[in-house]
Known about the structure:
- By secondary structure, chain A is an all-alpha fold.
- In chain A, about 65% of the residues lie in helices and about 5% in strands.
- In chain A, the strands form three sheets. Chain A has a two-stranded antiparallel sheet. A two-stranded antiparallel sheet of chain A has the order 3-4.
- In chain A, a hairpin with a 2-residue loop joins strand 5 (about 500-505) and strand 6 (about 505-510).
- Chain B is globular.
Amino acid sequence: MKRIIFQWIAVGLAGFCLLPWYMVDGGFWAFDWIADPASPENAPALLQILLHGRWWLAGALLALLAAALVQLLVKSPVRAARLTAAIAALALGWTMLQGLVIVRQGPRILQDLFAGTAAEQGQIGFGAGAAVTLLGLLFVLTTAISGMGKGRGDAFVTGMIGLIVSLVGVFVFYPVAHILISAFQTSVGAFEPGLFIPRFFSSEIWGIGCLVGQGSCGPAINSLMLAIATGVGTTALGLAFALIFTRTNFVAKPLLRVLSVIPIITPPFVIGLALILLFGRAGAATALFSDLFGIEKSRWLYSFWGIYIAQLLSFTPIAFLVLIGVVEGVSPSMEEASQTLNANRWQTFRHVSLPLMRPGLAAAFLLGFVESLADFGNPLVLGGNFNVLSTEIYFSIVGAVANPARAATLAIVLLVLTLGAFLAQRRWVGTKSYATVTGKADSGAHVALSRGVKWACYLTALPWAAFTAIVYSMIIFGSFVKLWGYDNSFTLEHYIRAFGMKLKNGALKLTGVAWDSYFTTLEIASIAAPLTALVGLATAYLLVRQNFRGKDVFEFSTMLSFAIPGTVIGVSYVLAFNFPPIELTGTALILIIVFVFRNMPVGVRGGIAAMSQLDKSLDEASITLGANSFTTVRRVIAPLMGPAMVAALTYSFVRAITSVSAVIFLYTARHNMATTFIVGRVENGDYGLAIAYSAVLIVTMLAVILATQFLLGRRRLRRENRIEPVAAGRA
Amino acid sequence: MKKRKMLGAALVATLFAANGAMAEELSIVCSNEQDWCDLMTSAFTEKTGIDVSMVRKSTGETLAQVRAEAGNPKIDVWWGGTGDPHLIAASEGLTQPSGVDTSELLGWAQKMADISGGRTIGIHLGVLGVAYNDEVLKEKGITPPACWKDLADPMYKGEIQVANPNSSGTAYTELATLVQVFGEDEAFKLLREIGKNVNQYTKSGSAPSKAAARGETGISIGFQHDMVKLAKKGFPLKIVSPCEGTGYEVGGVSIISGTKNLDAAKKFVEFALSAEAQSLGPQVGVYNVPSNKNATLPPEAPDPSTIKLIDYDFATYGSTETRERLLKRWDEEVKDAGN
Lengths: 731, 339
């Protein structure tokens, strides 16, 4: 304990005394600050205090020294831990407070008190020194807390909880509070909480006209209906795909695999456009049906149904990715036991396998539900007069009349719906144990599906796969023709414009307009994806395996960033991180952070589902043999989490490439992203280029996904993943 | 222990990997078409040697970002896009007067500068119009409209598409134009009648013409330069300037308050207003009317001398008060009139 605390004190002191406290011009890694390490901009905190009169930075230094003294002098370990924790907490609070109070323009409050001091000149945002010092203080705090006996005295566990709580606090709660506050403000910014109730319960939001046959519904009701339908639909389709994969001997599994994953890697708007070209009033399929059956050409697509189809296409892969690991993880022994007790295949599936999949089904439904709520691209293209919350929020922020109060209120409505779904799924999953992966050898074979279930799966999944194939051939086709949907003569022009290259003096020169954003996007996505998976799975581990106070709140707070529409996140990031103490706008870092914290819930949900299947006795055996929880995680749990890891990595990588609404406010010319580029072209009516770019992105992502799966996807359970041969079926 | 350190190190490392402050270059947000943005960037850099980082965002997104960044702007100049958001930014003090010489500009561009106290200056004019898909109308056997009033004819039922003025500046221009042409009460009566023929109020202002191009709707209302562009691509789109007279938007260029690159920003505004720069537009398919008297007018551009243009009152109809009143009335009387 002592040793760890001293380590972190040393880290904190190093940050305080050696690294530049503030953000430096040109970036930390440029190392320009080394040339002039004592200037008011570049100096570490120690020199800031001594040379530049910034005495208010001293809090952290005093705390670190005091903590060291306490550790050396106080004999009782529990008292020492308590004192250290108190000191570290105070210093963290103080350091953040000074950052919020003394900003660029000088002190925000108590100006008189600061009169005549260096504080009047203000200060810029936190830099490397501040970050390292704060990190040191944080871990001193969490280690001391474990020393008080919390978290079963495990410094690793308390440290992880502390780190994740702080990260979520800083990168989710802090920015989002900036925008949600306007739900309680008048149009000129005065605080008036009474305004919220009438705004929240306005009939304009909750109108149920469409249900009783009079006019249209409010966006909240529309969104809710759509989200439930999408959640149920994607879960059912995802389950059908997962069952075909794990429980049948279907021949074309690899092809199905690609088809089941491809929609997730499609940039926004593209699915909507493809659907319009197929089923719009002037669409190919519409014309066909009109010729064959005399069905009148109509605009039915621009309604609930259009969005619903597009969302099913877009989000089924998420359900599939979550469910496949879970379905695979259901123990054959249980199924065999059921059969030994003379249950037939259907009974086994209905009463043994399916209930064991509950956590997976719940996770899949919740993700589908929340994705549907926050989806922006499909309703925008296909919405017609069907208004949903996400588009209403977007246009409340960027529309012809900006109305931040309305945007914030709608965002809160959206959060309430998410919270409702979250609580409902918690109730449904309950507190039963779903552990099926245990330390015991497990040599059975999975029971094949009963005939009825098998055909139900085939009949839902295969037509859907065929439909997906048609939609994607449309898209690929669109990239090779002059004017998609109108002039269908073959051309390579779009690819050349986007990804052209020339050999010049023996050197390859990239002349295409898309290269720049393509590389930036890949770079940012590959940095963000592993971080997302790491944070997500670490959180899942804490939620499933550890007990601590406030766990429920902690769990919901990690879902929060996912449920808030990207537009709200984007604007709130600008509001929060454009000013000291944390100044990040205009950097690539803010893009990485926004991806990590927006996509982390998928890692969390997938991780929870997979981890609930791992029997706790595995951990206990490891701990009994003297391993600490970190070693247990690394040597026992992580290797069993392969599919969940793939799902988290894949998903976060892909989302970093395809998400658009949060990014719109954050990208800059230097960090231009592929989706914003594509959306710009779509807005410009330049579909060919947009689709050619999308096609290249799809191929890129597919390659990455398959590679990830190949490298990480297989976990070695002590059983064979085989399916009971149908001919030898015992029931 | 190792993992936690690695995690910490990874986070800290990424935290600083990109944590650089801006280098000295002019940061411009462009609300025009992508190709036009790219061309202007390279032309400006070539002429002045000033490095530019330009990014394209819609006017609504830009205004939201400029508002959020007020006090510590990361953008220096906002170029292009419809004038209303520029005027709103000016009235909120988010932009600053550039003091650039406007004597070479046409009357409507100077007027924009007068209204905003020099904070935003007109760069181009986009005329509001009606477009119809020739093939769809022929197939249905209906005659094309020629006037605003024609649009109320029941034969167009389910064929007209227009944006929602709450979300789209284009549709607000249309609303304000009708009010100026017919008077407020008469205009709302007409809008209700047209509403019976409208199949969808889209969110985005350019969506209706794109739908008309592909035959998803028969008729659209929007800006003519968007329609020209689609027609040039080969879609069977025909453009009408309504006989009663039509309104227009004036695109603006503004310097953001508190910019750290004021001199370079001024140079860019001067360049954007010059005949030299504005004559480049047609190369990349920009078909609106440039504001500099001496700029060459693209042959495909709607010719203001042959179109009956109203004297659009930006001061009145750009003000928040009028806007909120008209939109409220639109919500109450027009929005649900069709269905």
